[in-house]
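Changelog entry

Holo records now carry the ligand SMILES as an explicit input line rather than a separate metadata file. Below, a converted record for 2-oxoglutaric acid, shown in the new format.
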Amino acid sequence: MPKGLPPWWIINKVQPEGPEVDKGSWKAVSFSEAQQKEFGVDAEGTVTDQAKYDAKIDALKAARLATAPKLAAAPDGTTEMKVTTKKAPGRQRSRSPARGRQDASLVPIIDIGALSNTSADAEAKAAREKVAQEICTACGEIGFFVVINHGIPKDVVEAVWAQTRQFFDLPLEEKQTLTTDDDSKYPYGYSALGGETLSRGKRVDGGADEVEETKPAGDMKEMMQIGPCNAESGMPPRRMPTNPEGFAPAWERYYEEANSLAGRLLGAFAISLGLPANWFDNKKSKHISALRANNYPDQKDIVVPPGSIRCSAHTDYGTVTILKSGGPGLQVCKDKQDSVWHDVPYVPDGFVINLGDLMRRWTNDRWSSTLHRVINPPPDHVQTWGRRMGLAFFHNLDKDAIVETIPSCITESNPLKYDPIVAGEFLMLKHLASNGKADPDAHMKTRGGASARGL
Ligand SMILES: O=C(O)CCC(=O)C(=O)O
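Structure line, unchanged by the conversion:
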Protein backbone atom coordinates (compact mmCIF):
# COMPACT_ATOMS: atom_id res chain seq x y z
CA MET A 1 0.00 0.00 0.00
CA PRO A 2 1.61 3.30 -1.03
CA LYS A 3 2.34 6.06 1.47
CA GLY A 4 1.94 3.84 4.49
CA LEU A 5 -1.72 4.61 5.00
CA PRO A 6 -3.58 2.18 7.22
CA PRO A 7 -5.97 -0.02 5.22
CA TRP A 8 -8.88 0.66 7.56
CA TRP A 9 -8.64 4.32 6.71
CA ILE A 10 -8.91 3.76 3.01
CA ILE A 11 -11.51 1.03 3.13
CA ASN A 12 -13.63 3.02 5.51
CA LYS A 13 -13.81 5.65 2.84
CA VAL A 14 -14.43 3.19 0.05
CA GLN A 15 -16.97 1.12 1.91
CA PRO A 16 -18.53 3.44 4.45
CA GLU A 17 -20.84 0.69 5.68
CA GLY A 18 -17.90 -1.35 6.94
CA PRO A 19 -16.56 -4.74 5.99
CA GLU A 20 -18.52 -6.99 3.71
CA VAL A 21 -17.89 -10.45 4.93
CA ASP A 22 -19.24 -13.33 2.95
CA LYS A 23 -18.99 -17.03 3.75
CA GLY A 24 -16.50 -16.37 6.51
CA SER A 25 -13.83 -15.23 4.10
CA TRP A 26 -12.77 -11.65 3.83
CA LYS A 27 -11.43 -12.29 0.38
CA ALA A 28 -15.05 -11.64 -0.53
CA VAL A 29 -14.41 -7.94 0.08
CA SER A 30 -14.35 -6.41 -3.34
CA PHE A 31 -14.30 -3.05 -5.03
CA SER A 32 -17.13 -2.20 -7.41
CA GLU A 33 -16.31 -1.36 -11.02
CA ALA A 34 -16.90 2.32 -10.32
CA GLN A 35 -14.58 2.17 -7.31
CA GLN A 36 -11.94 0.36 -9.35
CA LYS A 37 -11.98 3.20 -11.88
CA GLU A 38 -12.05 5.85 -9.22
CA PHE A 39 -9.16 4.41 -7.20
CA GLY A 40 -7.06 2.78 -9.90
CA VAL A 41 -7.31 -0.65 -8.27
CA ASP A 42 -8.61 -4.04 -9.31
CA ALA A 43 -11.51 -5.89 -7.68
CA GLU A 44 -9.32 -7.07 -4.80
CA GLY A 45 -7.80 -3.66 -4.20
CA THR A 46 -4.43 -4.22 -5.82
CA VAL A 47 -3.18 -0.97 -7.32
CA THR A 48 -3.27 -0.93 -11.12
CA ASP A 49 -2.80 2.80 -11.68
CA GLN A 50 -0.35 4.20 -9.15
CA ALA A 51 -0.76 7.88 -10.05
CA LYS A 52 -4.54 7.72 -9.86
CA TYR A 53 -4.38 5.79 -6.60
CA ASP A 54 -1.95 8.26 -4.99
CA ALA A 55 -4.03 11.26 -6.03
CA LYS A 56 -7.21 9.69 -4.72
CA ILE A 57 -5.66 8.71 -1.41
CA ASP A 58 -4.23 12.18 -0.90
CA ALA A 59 -7.66 13.70 -1.56
CA LEU A 60 -9.32 11.24 0.81
CA LYS A 61 -6.76 11.89 3.48
CA ALA A 62 -7.41 15.62 3.34
CA ALA A 63 -11.17 15.08 3.41
CA ARG A 64 -10.85 12.60 6.25
CA LEU A 65 -8.88 14.95 8.45
CA ALA A 66 -11.35 17.73 7.74
CA THR A 67 -14.31 15.59 8.79
CA ALA A 68 -12.63 13.68 11.63
CA PRO A 69 -14.95 14.88 14.41
CA LYS A 70 -17.94 13.50 12.52
CA LEU A 71 -16.79 9.88 12.79
CA ALA A 72 -19.04 7.44 14.60
CA ALA A 73 -18.54 7.09 18.33
CA ALA A 74 -17.23 3.75 19.58
CA PRO A 75 -18.80 2.11 22.63
CA ASP A 76 -16.11 3.74 24.77
CA GLY A 77 -16.67 7.15 23.26
CA THR A 78 -13.54 6.95 21.15
CA THR A 79 -13.59 7.15 17.40
CA GLU A 80 -14.62 3.80 16.04
CA MET A 81 -13.22 2.81 12.69
CA LYS A 82 -15.07 0.40 10.46
CA VAL A 83 -12.33 -1.81 9.22
CA THR A 84 -11.78 -4.39 6.64
CA THR A 85 -8.85 -5.23 4.50
CA LYS A 86 -7.56 -5.23 1.01
CA LYS A 87 -4.66 -6.92 -0.64
CA ALA A 88 -1.42 -4.97 -0.65
CA PRO A 89 0.09 -4.16 -4.02
CA GLY A 90 3.33 -5.93 -3.17
CA ARG A 91 5.72 -6.71 -0.37
CA GLN A 92 6.68 -3.73 1.68
CA ARG A 93 8.75 -3.66 4.85
CA SER A 94 8.02 -1.35 7.71
CA ARG A 95 10.42 -0.86 10.58
CA SER A 96 8.67 2.00 12.25
CA PRO A 97 7.00 1.16 15.55
CA ALA A 98 4.15 3.42 14.49
CA ARG A 99 3.35 1.73 11.19
CA GLY A 100 2.26 -1.73 10.31
CA ARG A 101 2.50 -3.41 6.98
CA GLN A 102 -0.50 -2.36 5.00
CA ASP A 103 -1.73 -5.87 4.39
CA ALA A 104 -4.11 -7.17 6.97
CA SER A 105 -5.28 -10.13 4.89
CA LEU A 106 -2.91 -12.24 6.96
CA VAL A 107 -5.56 -12.38 9.71
CA PRO A 108 -8.74 -13.99 8.34
CA ILE A 109 -12.31 -13.35 9.42
CA ILE A 110 -14.12 -16.59 10.18
CA ASP A 111 -17.86 -17.09 10.61
CA ILE A 112 -18.08 -19.59 13.48
CA GLY A 113 -21.88 -19.69 13.68
CA ALA A 114 -21.82 -23.45 12.96
CA LEU A 115 -20.00 -24.12 16.25
CA SER A 116 -23.06 -23.05 18.23
CA ASN A 117 -25.16 -25.77 16.62
CA THR A 118 -24.33 -28.90 18.60
CA SER A 119 -26.81 -31.12 16.76
CA ALA A 120 -25.55 -34.61 15.93
CA ASP A 121 -26.98 -34.58 12.41
CA ALA A 122 -24.56 -35.00 9.52
CA GLU A 123 -25.08 -31.54 8.08
CA ALA A 124 -24.36 -29.77 11.36
CA LYS A 125 -21.31 -31.97 11.93
CA ALA A 126 -19.97 -31.21 8.45
CA ALA A 127 -20.48 -27.48 9.03
CA ARG A 128 -18.55 -27.65 12.33
CA GLU A 129 -15.74 -29.55 10.62
CA LYS A 130 -15.52 -26.96 7.88
CA VAL A 131 -15.18 -24.15 10.42
CA ALA A 132 -12.64 -26.21 12.36
CA GLN A 133 -10.51 -26.55 9.23
CA GLU A 134 -10.60 -22.79 8.58
CA ILE A 135 -9.54 -22.21 12.17
CA CYS A 136 -6.78 -24.80 11.87
CA THR A 137 -5.36 -23.06 8.81
CA ALA A 138 -5.34 -19.68 10.58
CA CYS A 139 -3.74 -21.20 13.70
CA GLY A 140 -0.95 -22.71 11.61
CA GLU A 141 -0.37 -19.67 9.43
CA ILE A 142 -0.61 -16.77 11.84
CA GLY A 143 -2.14 -17.83 15.17
CA PHE A 144 -4.69 -15.01 14.85
CA PHE A 145 -8.19 -14.78 13.38
CA VAL A 146 -11.30 -12.68 13.83
CA VAL A 147 -14.60 -14.41 14.61
CA ILE A 148 -18.09 -13.31 13.71
CA ASN A 149 -21.36 -15.05 14.70
CA HIS A 150 -19.53 -16.04 17.87
CA GLY A 151 -22.61 -16.45 20.08
CA ILE A 152 -21.80 -13.84 22.76
CA PRO A 153 -24.96 -11.74 23.16
CA LYS A 154 -24.60 -8.09 22.19
CA ASP A 155 -26.18 -6.80 25.40
CA VAL A 156 -23.56 -8.66 27.46
CA VAL A 157 -20.77 -6.95 25.53
CA GLU A 158 -22.40 -3.53 25.70
CA ALA A 159 -22.93 -3.82 29.46
CA VAL A 160 -19.38 -4.87 30.24
CA TRP A 161 -18.03 -2.16 27.97
CA ALA A 162 -20.08 0.61 29.58
CA GLN A 163 -19.29 -0.51 33.14
CA THR A 164 -15.59 -0.81 32.38
CA ARG A 165 -15.48 2.62 30.87
CA GLN A 166 -17.18 4.06 33.97
CA PHE A 167 -14.68 2.29 36.18
CA PHE A 168 -11.69 3.71 34.31
CA ASP A 169 -13.25 7.18 34.56
CA LEU A 170 -13.08 7.07 38.37
CA PRO A 171 -10.37 9.06 40.18
CA LEU A 172 -7.01 7.31 40.28
CA GLU A 173 -7.00 7.03 44.09
CA GLU A 174 -10.27 5.12 44.01
CA LYS A 175 -9.06 2.72 41.34
CA GLN A 176 -5.80 2.22 43.21
CA THR A 177 -7.64 0.72 46.18
CA LEU A 178 -7.83 -2.33 43.90
CA THR A 179 -4.09 -2.50 43.28
CA THR A 180 -2.63 -5.71 44.65
CA ASP A 181 0.14 -5.35 47.21
CA ASP A 182 1.52 -8.83 46.59
CA ASP A 183 0.99 -10.28 43.18
CA SER A 184 2.15 -13.74 44.20
CA LYS A 185 -0.94 -13.84 46.46
CA TYR A 186 -3.36 -11.92 44.23
CA PRO A 187 -2.12 -11.63 40.62
CA TYR A 188 -5.09 -9.49 39.54
CA GLY A 189 -6.60 -6.09 40.35
CA TYR A 190 -5.88 -2.59 39.08
CA SER A 191 -2.62 -1.42 37.54
CA ALA A 192 -2.05 2.26 36.72
CA LEU A 193 -0.63 3.76 33.53
CA GLY A 194 2.91 2.51 32.88
CA GLY A 195 2.58 -0.26 35.49
CA GLU A 196 3.35 -3.10 33.09
CA THR A 197 5.84 -3.67 30.28
CA LEU A 198 4.66 -6.74 28.46
CA SER A 199 7.69 -6.80 26.18
CA ARG A 200 9.88 -7.47 29.21
CA GLY A 201 8.76 -11.05 28.86
CA LYS A 202 10.11 -11.09 25.31
CA ARG A 203 13.45 -10.56 23.73
CA VAL A 204 12.02 -8.05 21.31
CA ASP A 205 9.69 -5.16 21.08
CA GLY A 206 8.91 -3.94 17.64
CA GLY A 207 10.05 -6.98 15.76
CA ALA A 208 13.46 -8.52 15.45
CA ASP A 209 14.88 -5.49 13.61
CA GLU A 210 14.21 -3.23 16.51
CA VAL A 211 15.82 -5.32 19.20
CA GLU A 212 18.68 -2.91 19.72
CA GLU A 213 16.55 0.22 19.44
CA THR A 214 13.91 -0.33 22.06
CA LYS A 215 14.41 -0.08 25.82
CA PRO A 216 11.69 -1.34 28.14
CA ALA A 217 9.36 1.51 29.05
CA GLY A 218 5.98 1.33 30.77
CA ASP A 219 3.04 0.57 28.52
CA MET A 220 0.64 3.47 27.89
CA LYS A 221 -2.34 1.74 29.45
CA GLU A 222 -4.08 1.15 32.73
CA MET A 223 -5.63 -2.21 33.50
CA MET A 224 -8.16 -4.02 35.62
CA GLN A 225 -8.11 -7.79 35.88
CA ILE A 226 -9.99 -10.62 37.58
CA GLY A 227 -9.51 -14.36 37.80
CA PRO A 228 -11.95 -17.27 38.20
CA CYS A 229 -14.66 -17.35 40.86
CA ASN A 230 -14.38 -21.11 41.39
CA ALA A 231 -12.58 -21.80 44.70
CA GLU A 232 -11.50 -25.20 43.35
CA SER A 233 -9.32 -23.44 40.79
CA GLY A 234 -6.82 -22.78 43.56
CA MET A 235 -6.88 -19.03 42.90
CA PRO A 236 -7.78 -16.36 45.48
CA PRO A 237 -11.36 -15.01 45.66
CA ARG A 238 -12.21 -12.24 43.21
CA ARG A 239 -11.95 -8.61 44.24
CA MET A 240 -14.42 -6.51 42.27
CA PRO A 241 -14.98 -2.77 42.45
CA THR A 242 -18.28 -1.80 44.08
CA ASN A 243 -18.33 1.38 42.02
CA PRO A 244 -19.88 1.47 39.47
CA GLU A 245 -22.58 -0.71 40.94
CA GLY A 246 -23.18 -2.67 37.75
CA PHE A 247 -19.51 -3.56 37.29
CA ALA A 248 -19.44 -6.91 39.12
CA PRO A 249 -22.54 -8.45 37.48
CA ALA A 250 -21.48 -7.24 34.03
CA TRP A 251 -17.98 -8.66 34.41
CA GLU A 252 -19.24 -11.95 35.88
CA ARG A 253 -21.62 -12.45 32.98
CA TYR A 254 -19.09 -11.51 30.32
CA TYR A 255 -16.45 -13.78 31.89
CA GLU A 256 -18.85 -16.74 31.64
CA GLU A 257 -19.83 -15.94 28.04
CA ALA A 258 -16.19 -15.57 27.00
CA ASN A 259 -15.39 -18.84 28.71
CA SER A 260 -18.19 -20.58 26.78
CA LEU A 261 -16.82 -19.16 23.54
CA ALA A 262 -13.37 -20.46 24.52
CA GLY A 263 -15.01 -23.87 24.99
CA ARG A 264 -16.54 -23.76 21.49
CA LEU A 265 -13.19 -22.77 20.01
CA LEU A 266 -11.34 -25.52 21.88
CA GLY A 267 -13.92 -27.99 20.57
CA ALA A 268 -13.10 -26.84 17.04
CA PHE A 269 -9.36 -27.04 17.78
CA ALA A 270 -9.83 -30.63 18.88
CA ILE A 271 -11.81 -31.60 15.77
CA SER A 272 -9.21 -30.01 13.51
CA LEU A 273 -6.41 -31.90 15.25
CA GLY A 274 -8.17 -35.22 14.71
CA LEU A 275 -9.35 -35.51 18.34
CA PRO A 276 -12.84 -35.95 19.82
CA ALA A 277 -14.56 -32.56 20.23
CA ASN A 278 -14.48 -32.87 24.04
CA TRP A 279 -10.77 -33.73 24.18
CA PHE A 280 -9.78 -30.56 26.10
CA ASP A 281 -12.67 -30.73 28.57
CA ASN A 282 -10.97 -32.64 31.38
CA LYS A 283 -8.20 -30.05 31.53
CA LYS A 284 -10.39 -27.03 32.10
CA SER A 285 -13.09 -27.94 34.64
CA LYS A 286 -11.38 -25.70 37.27
CA HIS A 287 -9.59 -23.40 34.84
CA ILE A 288 -7.72 -20.28 35.91
CA SER A 289 -8.72 -18.00 33.04
CA ALA A 290 -8.38 -14.24 33.53
CA LEU A 291 -10.37 -11.29 32.23
CA ARG A 292 -8.45 -8.08 31.73
CA ALA A 293 -9.57 -4.65 30.59
CA ASN A 294 -7.03 -2.27 29.10
CA ASN A 295 -7.67 1.46 28.91
CA TYR A 296 -5.37 3.37 26.58
CA PRO A 297 -5.82 7.07 27.23
CA ASP A 298 -6.20 9.64 24.51
CA GLN A 299 -2.67 10.75 23.64
CA LYS A 300 -3.68 14.23 22.48
CA ASP A 301 -2.88 15.92 25.75
CA ILE A 302 -0.28 13.69 27.35
CA VAL A 303 3.45 13.35 26.96
CA VAL A 304 4.34 9.88 25.77
CA PRO A 305 7.72 8.85 27.23
CA PRO A 306 10.26 7.86 24.57
CA GLY A 307 10.04 4.13 23.82
CA SER A 308 6.56 3.81 25.33
CA ILE A 309 3.86 2.18 23.31
CA ARG A 310 0.21 1.50 24.13
CA CYS A 311 0.87 -2.21 24.59
CA SER A 312 4.37 -3.48 23.91
CA ALA A 313 5.13 -6.58 21.86
CA HIS A 314 4.34 -9.86 23.54
CA THR A 315 2.83 -13.27 23.05
CA ASP A 316 0.02 -14.51 25.27
CA TYR A 317 0.54 -17.18 27.87
CA GLY A 318 -2.26 -19.70 27.82
CA THR A 319 -4.42 -21.61 25.38
CA VAL A 320 -6.51 -19.01 23.57
CA THR A 321 -7.26 -15.29 23.99
CA ILE A 322 -10.58 -13.66 23.11
CA LEU A 323 -10.17 -9.95 22.53
CA LYS A 324 -12.84 -7.30 22.15
CA SER A 325 -11.06 -4.21 20.93
CA GLY A 326 -12.32 -0.68 20.61
CA GLY A 327 -10.48 0.64 17.59
CA PRO A 328 -7.41 0.42 15.37
CA GLY A 329 -3.84 -0.11 16.48
CA LEU A 330 -3.47 -3.86 17.06
CA GLN A 331 -0.67 -5.37 15.03
CA VAL A 332 0.90 -8.80 14.62
CA CYS A 333 4.36 -9.87 13.56
CA LYS A 334 5.31 -13.28 12.23
CA ASP A 335 8.57 -13.11 14.12
CA LYS A 336 10.14 -16.20 12.64
CA GLN A 337 9.61 -15.14 9.03
CA ASP A 338 10.18 -11.42 9.04
CA SER A 339 9.93 -8.45 11.36
CA VAL A 340 7.11 -6.73 9.54
CA TRP A 341 4.11 -5.60 11.55
CA HIS A 342 0.69 -6.29 10.04
CA ASP A 343 -2.50 -4.49 11.05
CA VAL A 344 -5.22 -6.70 12.53
CA PRO A 345 -8.62 -5.81 11.08
CA TYR A 346 -11.03 -4.18 13.47
CA VAL A 347 -14.47 -5.72 12.97
CA PRO A 348 -17.28 -4.17 15.00
CA ASP A 349 -19.15 -6.97 16.80
CA GLY A 350 -16.31 -9.40 16.08
CA PHE A 351 -13.67 -10.77 18.43
CA VAL A 352 -9.98 -11.18 17.73
CA ILE A 353 -8.82 -14.67 18.66
CA ASN A 354 -5.20 -15.60 19.17
CA LEU A 355 -3.26 -18.52 20.54
CA GLY A 356 -0.99 -18.42 23.57
CA ASP A 357 2.40 -20.03 24.06
CA LEU A 358 0.91 -23.00 25.87
CA MET A 359 -1.12 -23.97 22.79
CA ARG A 360 1.92 -23.52 20.62
CA ARG A 361 3.90 -25.84 22.88
CA TRP A 362 1.02 -28.31 23.07
CA THR A 363 0.88 -28.53 19.27
CA ASN A 364 4.64 -29.00 18.97
CA ASP A 365 4.89 -25.60 17.21
CA ARG A 366 2.48 -26.73 14.50
CA TRP A 367 0.38 -23.72 15.54
CA SER A 368 1.71 -20.25 16.27
CA SER A 369 1.53 -17.93 19.23
CA THR A 370 2.23 -14.69 17.49
CA LEU A 371 3.89 -11.49 18.69
CA HIS A 372 1.42 -8.63 18.87
CA ARG A 373 1.26 -5.09 20.16
CA VAL A 374 -0.93 -1.99 20.18
CA ILE A 375 0.72 1.05 18.65
CA ASN A 376 0.38 4.67 19.69
CA PRO A 377 -1.72 6.76 17.33
CA PRO A 378 0.65 7.77 14.50
CA PRO A 379 1.28 11.56 14.47
CA ASP A 380 -1.34 12.20 11.78
CA HIS A 381 -3.96 10.23 13.76
CA VAL A 382 -3.48 11.57 17.27
CA GLN A 383 -6.53 13.76 16.81
CA THR A 384 -8.78 10.99 15.48
CA TRP A 385 -7.81 7.75 17.24
CA GLY A 386 -8.51 9.10 20.71
CA ARG A 387 -8.98 6.81 23.70
CA ARG A 388 -9.03 3.08 23.16
CA MET A 389 -10.24 0.23 25.32
CA GLY A 390 -9.69 -3.50 25.00
CA LEU A 391 -11.12 -6.49 26.87
CA ALA A 392 -8.99 -9.61 26.80
CA PHE A 393 -10.17 -12.97 28.10
CA PHE A 394 -7.13 -15.20 28.57
CA HIS A 395 -8.26 -18.80 28.64
CA ASN A 396 -6.03 -20.93 30.83
CA LEU A 397 -6.20 -24.58 31.82
CA ASP A 398 -6.54 -26.06 35.29
CA LYS A 399 -3.49 -25.21 37.37
CA ASP A 400 -2.50 -28.88 37.66
CA ALA A 401 -3.26 -29.91 34.06
CA ILE A 402 -0.40 -31.81 32.44
CA VAL A 403 0.34 -30.55 28.95
CA GLU A 404 1.93 -33.23 26.86
CA THR A 405 2.41 -32.77 23.12
CA ILE A 406 -0.74 -33.67 21.15
CA PRO A 407 0.14 -36.93 19.33
CA SER A 408 -1.24 -35.82 15.95
CA CYS A 409 1.23 -32.91 16.02
CA ILE A 410 4.27 -35.18 16.11
CA THR A 411 5.33 -36.26 12.64
CA GLU A 412 8.48 -37.31 10.89
CA SER A 413 9.06 -33.78 9.64
CA ASN A 414 8.07 -32.26 13.00
CA PRO A 415 9.48 -34.58 15.69
CA LEU A 416 8.65 -34.19 19.38
CA LYS A 417 10.17 -30.96 20.73
CA TYR A 418 8.95 -30.48 24.28
CA ASP A 419 8.76 -32.37 27.57
CA PRO A 420 5.41 -32.48 29.37
CA ILE A 421 4.79 -29.45 31.60
CA VAL A 422 2.30 -28.53 34.33
CA ALA A 423 0.06 -25.71 33.07
CA GLY A 424 0.24 -23.67 36.32
CA GLU A 425 4.04 -23.82 36.39
CA PHE A 426 4.22 -22.77 32.74
CA LEU A 427 2.04 -19.74 33.46
CA MET A 428 4.17 -18.79 36.44
CA LEU A 429 7.35 -18.82 34.32
CA LYS A 430 5.72 -16.45 31.82
CA HIS A 431 4.40 -14.23 34.58
CA LEU A 432 7.84 -14.00 36.23
CA ALA A 433 9.43 -13.19 32.87
CA SER A 434 7.07 -10.24 32.34
CA ASN A 435 8.20 -8.92 35.74
CA GLY A 436 11.86 -9.34 34.79
CA LYS A 437 12.28 -12.24 37.25
CA ALA A 438 12.82 -15.11 34.79
CA ASP A 439 14.45 -15.83 31.47
CA PRO A 440 11.96 -14.71 28.79
CA ASP A 441 12.25 -18.04 27.04
CA ALA A 442 12.27 -20.35 30.06
CA HIS A 443 8.74 -21.61 29.36
CA MET A 444 9.60 -22.65 25.80
CA LYS A 445 12.73 -24.68 26.46
CA THR A 446 12.83 -27.68 24.17
CA ARG A 447 13.92 -31.17 25.18
CA GLY A 448 17.54 -30.32 24.32
CA GLY A 449 17.32 -27.24 26.57
CA ALA A 450 17.40 -24.66 23.78
CA SER A 451 14.77 -21.97 23.38
CA ALA A 452 12.25 -22.71 20.66
CA ARG A 453 11.30 -19.08 20.22
CA GLY A 454 14.45 -18.46 18.25
CA LEU A 455 14.65 -14.73 18.90
O1 LIG B 1 -5.98 -4.11 23.76
C1 LIG B 1 -5.65 -4.82 22.81
O2 LIG B 1 -6.14 -4.67 21.69
C2 LIG B 1 -4.59 -5.91 22.99
C3 LIG B 1 -4.28 -6.21 24.41
C4 LIG B 1 -3.33 -7.31 24.60
O3 LIG B 1 -2.71 -7.80 23.69
C5 LIG B 1 -3.12 -7.82 25.96
O4 LIG B 1 -3.68 -7.27 26.92
O5 LIG B 1 -2.39 -8.84 26.09
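Spot-checked after migration. Residues 247-272 form the longest helix (26 residues). The chain has two domains: 1-82, 90-444.
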